Amino acid sequence: MSMAEEVTAHLPYLRRFARSVTGNQKSGDAYVVSALEAMLADPRLFAADLSPRVALYRTFVTLLNSIALNTEKDSGPQHPALDAANRNLDILAPRARQAFLLVAVEEFQPHEAAQILDIGAEELQALIDEAGREIAKQMATDVVIIEDEPLIALDLEQLVTDLGHRVVQIARTAHQAVQAVQRSRPGLLLADIHLADGSSGLDAVNEILRTFSLPVVFVTAYPQRLLTGTRPEPTFLITKPFHPDNVKAVISQALFFDIRGRPEQPSLASA
Question: Is the pLDDT of residue 57 over 80?
């Protein structure tokens, strides 16, 4: 398998990570483009002792945390993507959040996360503990769950409750979901895509976001239907079957970053 083929398989997930740590899809994608250009220019970034995924994320994080890159000001022509990223440097996440996301959301093993951040195991754990303390400061909020499978819905409700939040309603259809949000005005929405009556959780979320802004976490067995690279994509995505720690981590990050959802815009092809 070529380097390009190995990297391409991981790009949707790197873009998800990039959006989480920058808080902005355009800025995150700019750094992803820069990382790809760097790897193409210097194949040595694919170190023999690193997997392609670790090497890709390591290159991205190195660029993201580069002092030279982040402090450069109009010193000459730049790649348009880098210029877009530099306009959003004020919302870059600190390394503690990067460490937390790498382990809890991107599901790297601790030794892989340490390789990506170029730090030791003890420093990695210290960063994760720091992120945990920050997240613990978050205030509890009301949550609406859109899920038609009763057992999954109950699992999600228990995990949400364990974090100190309150589930105000479990909606099984798109119509119920819209009504629940209009009535309770929650602080977080967990949404499946395919619902009991054949309706779409994605359609429900888009209708909700037209009148009410809140963080949204998609919980789906079909992540490829959301991570397409051709439209605004969800910042927070949990793949079924899920691990409880992963769900808790993503919920905490969604509230911690407080990145508000927005309705999906129609593509040019469908306009």
Answer: yes
Per CATH, the homologous superfamily of domain 3-135 is PhyR, sigma-like (SL) domain (1.20.140.160)
Enter the pTM of the model.
0.54
pLDDT tens track for 198-222: 888 889 998 999 998 899 999 988 7
Q: Mean pLDDT throughout 49-61? A: 90
pLDDT at site 125: 83
Architecture label for domain 139-257 = 3-Layer(aba) Sandwich (3.40)
Beta-carbon count within 10 A of 79 CB: 12
